[in-house]
Amino acid sequence: MEEKKREMGRYFTVGNPFQTRAFQNWAKALAITNERALEPFAGCGNIPVLLEQAGYDLRFSKYDIQPAQKGIVKRDTIKSFPRGYKTVITNPPWLAKNSAQRRGIRFPQTHFDDLYKVALEKCLLNAENVCAIIPDTFITSGEFRKRLMAYVSLPGEMFADTEQPVGMALFGKNGKAATYWIWNRRIGTIAAIESAMPKRARRKFRFNAKNGNLGLIAVDGTKGPSIRFCGAEEIPKFAVKATSRSRTRILVMGTVPSTRRLNNRLAELREKTGDMPLSSFKGTRKDGMFRRRISWRQAEDIISEALGA
Fold first, then answer.
1. Are 281 and 291 spatial neighbours (Cβ–Cβ below 8 Å)?
2. CA atoms within 13 A on the CB side of 170
3. Residues 34, 28 contacting (CB under 8 angstroms)
């Protein structure tokens, strides 16, 4: 059963993101009320119900490759997308290409690395207004930015059967000064958030070096925001491998910045950006926020900035 769900890329929405300010602003700006709308990946039909609960009266046409409710038309909408709709509100199927290959699951011929991107492209090619509930990693991918009006990160339980971090992307005919939100908290424009990060490092450091002189815990734990730089001795040499991604030793030639300075800067960046540039990681922390992971490039930029290079 679970493998079949993975193959279809189907996860049923149980939260209600349509009561957020960002969605309300989007719906008002685009006059999305009392009109025809399309749910091309309807699953068990939760999205129209959630919209009704949020006060929206839309006349939905619902399709799915494997309908789980009466009133949903059976159709492979990736192969044959319904036309003639101005507005699409959907939770498209998710399935990473590498995960599909590892499990021997069929995956369409495409340059995209996840099925949700294939589905999202179909939506954007066929409708002016698109709202999509998608993996939170969307915002760090840098894709589909041209028409993006707002993105809402939705930490907490959005789905009944997956810990996948979730967000909501809101598109119009033309995107301008797209904003980033965490539920109802507006962090700022995406452009301003990205420009707040340190400039690309000129210096290069060696990561996953057993003889490294600076340590890094690169992934949040479950209790709170615990990514941090630390003394190299805190990371055992035997734990450092070429494939390490959660903790590492870094070889810094010359002066090593103090961990206090690096961690103060990291904390400042996390607060200012709402963690948007950091990749969301499976699971939610006890404070209700998504766990995050810092990339080697981002860590390198912070170290390089501290060294004045």
1. yes
2. 25
3. no
Q: Residue 106 CB: number of other CB atoms within 10 A?
A: 7
The token pair at 258 is 């103090």
Between CA 274 and CA 182 the distance in angstroms is 8
Q: Are residues 44 and 68 in contact, defined by beta-carbon separation less than 8 angstroms?
A: yes
Residue 200 buriedness (CB in 10 A; 0-12 / 13-18 / 19+): exposed
Position 162 scores a pLDDT of: 59
Span 114-164, pLDDT tens digits: 999 999 999 999 999 999 999 999 999 999 999 999 999 999 866 555 578
The one-letter code for the residue type at 206 is: R
Do the beta carbons of residue 168 and residue 136 sit within 8 Å? no
Question: In Å, how far are 35, 140, 212 from 166, measured between CA atoms?
Answer: 27, 13, 35
pLDDT means over runs of 10, the chain (309 residues): 43 71 96 90 92 94 93 95 97 83 78 92 97 96 96 79 84 92 96 95 90 97 96 96 95 95 98 97 88 96 91
E strands, 116-262, in order: 129-135, 148-153, 166-171, 179-182, 185-189, 206-207, 214-217, 228-230, 247-251
Interatomic CA distance for residues 222 and 163, integer angstroms = 13
Assign 28 to helix, strand or coil: helix
Sign of CA dihedral 42, 43, 44, 46: negative
Please indicate, yes or no, whether the overall pTM of this predicted structure exceeds 0.85.
yes
Those residues whose C-beta lies under 8 Å from the C-beta of residue 199, and which sit 6 or more positions away, are 301, 305
pLDDT for residue 309? 65
